[in-house]
Amino acid sequence: MPEEPEAAPLYEVDEEVLASKADSGLLWLAIEGVVYDLSQWHEHPGGTEVLRRFAGKDATAEFQKACQCKTSLASVSRYQVGVLRLPPHEYRIFEHPVEEGEMRRLLTFALPSLIIGIVGLKVFTGEVAEASQSLGVLPGLLVAVGAGTFGILTPMRRRLGGSSVGSSSGWHAHIIALGITALCGILPIAASSSWTSLGGAASQGLELLSLGLFAAETMLAPAMPLPTVPALLCLFSWYDRGLRPADFFHEGIYNPWRWCMACVALIVLLTRLADGRAACARRALALTSLYASAGVCLYVALQPDASELRQIFTASPLRMGGLLVFASFASMLAQLALLDMALRCSSSFATRCVAFTLALLNFALYGLSSWRWLLAAGVVLHFLELSRHHRGRLDQAATAGRFAELPWHFLGAQALWDSGRVSVLGYLWRATVCNLQNVVTSIIPDELRVYACEAPVPYYGENVAMGLAAQYVPPKARGKDRRRPNFFVCNVGQIVESALPDLQHTMNTLVDVWGEFHDPTLPGLCANVVMVFPTSGQGWAKEINLSVWESGKDAFDWYVKSKGHKKALMEHTSGILRTFGNLLASLEPAEPIKYQDRCRRCGRTVEAAPGQPAQPACPVCGAGTFRYNLF
């Protein structure tokens, strides 16, 4: 079979893609979960027309009826396209890479864009406010004009919402444009406001905006449990910073809260109007420059103090012009991020992302002092409660058989959250506990050690015993002429957990046997695996020893000559071990063992004749295999 150095790597194929290939004349079909492109394969005994009946379909049942030998698939391995991706029926961690990747790309753009947009707006309007406090919403309206202009000139607006189109109702676009204009005008005022009557511990505008968005989404999502504990932590934080119920009627408290709640209402309105209306959102970004320009003209006509802005720009044209351009472009990115999340995911998802982003930005700017850490704890608890509720909805949908109806962002958000916390907490685990094991091991006797698993393991349930396994493969079983396993010896010992001397004797004997297996002149040993379960939940510990040999004679010769095995027999029969029970099983394959390897480049399975090791090179692309140990 000729090699194809440029053979395409394997990838996942959706059912829709598989079915579409039949319409284009290609002969793609699936067998046992693997998709093959047999358009150029003409060696079928029944002819190509027999295969054409299954083009774009799953031909597993017909293949199993016609051919009982799976080795026949090896002859068409070069035509593999990849695995058939079936619609998931339940959520499984690490098994939704497409949705996770899409969510990662979305948030990688959206969250930094929101932060840059808010920072850019605050920097420009803050610079203007230092020169004049009487310009009100005018600086924000100027930023809206620039953001709308950038939205028209740059191609980013056309990719808003991906390939979705949605409704193009005109009035929705105008309302969204008006909402964006109003939000740009009042957001700088709200974000820079604070409860000044509380002094240095005052709640800032970013804090009030994030809490307002959380409260709004809680009221608009009745299925969500009330965040009682986070709300209490927020109130305690405000109380400890000096806020009292009567203070809400104070102008220094009421006015900032009013501006922030107006922004909250606009953000919620924008996400609700944009949800499912991609065409409207794209059009609205272009209309923003028109409405914002009209707002600037109206403000200048009604407010005589507007001339102060001209003086500010005249005094420092390059600096102020640069800040305006930066704030406008950053604001456009933030608008795109907000609307894109509402279109690709949902309005609730977009609003909550904005809320968490504002909260993180607030803590980054103002720290956790003055009882703000209570508020931070409340935000974290609210996030964890949302994640638990989200996972519960996934499980409920799977139980009800409606998992396929869930939108993609449900899976993507959960998958990204799971992989993220596994990575972060796994790093913390390795940096702390895994390093601590070296300290403890250096203190306890030299014959013993403690071990902390470096990677998380699956959760198998409550009544499952966890233990430790160790493997040894002799150098001669790993070399070019690898030993082939043909005989297996399994030894299972059980000890009452309370009989600590029996467990210690057994472990000492196990160390002796393990040392004998490391003898480089030992003939026939392919591998040895030892597993120890200190507790099983049933009242006894277990020790399992699995040794793999080239032949039964090699195993027999070792057991006859082994000092460690003789010591173990003596302890069993002499009464030294008071509670030890043993099972010894010798296993020999009834048929030749089938070995497989995998190509390093294209990922295809490399098979061999029964009883023979797999080839060192891929028969499709010619690249080397991983050269796995045979056991």
TrEMBL record:
The source's superkingdom equals: Eukaryota
Q: Which SMART domains match?
A: Cyt-b5 (SM01117)
Which PROSITE patterns does this UniProt record tie to the protein? Answer: CYTOCHROME_B5_2
Residue spans making up a coiled coil are none
A GO molecular-function annotation? heme binding
Has the keyword Iron been applied to this entry?
yes
State what protein this is by name.
AlnC protein
Q: What is the originating organism of this protein? A: Symbiodinium pilosum (Dinoflagellate)
Gene from which this protein is expressed: alnC
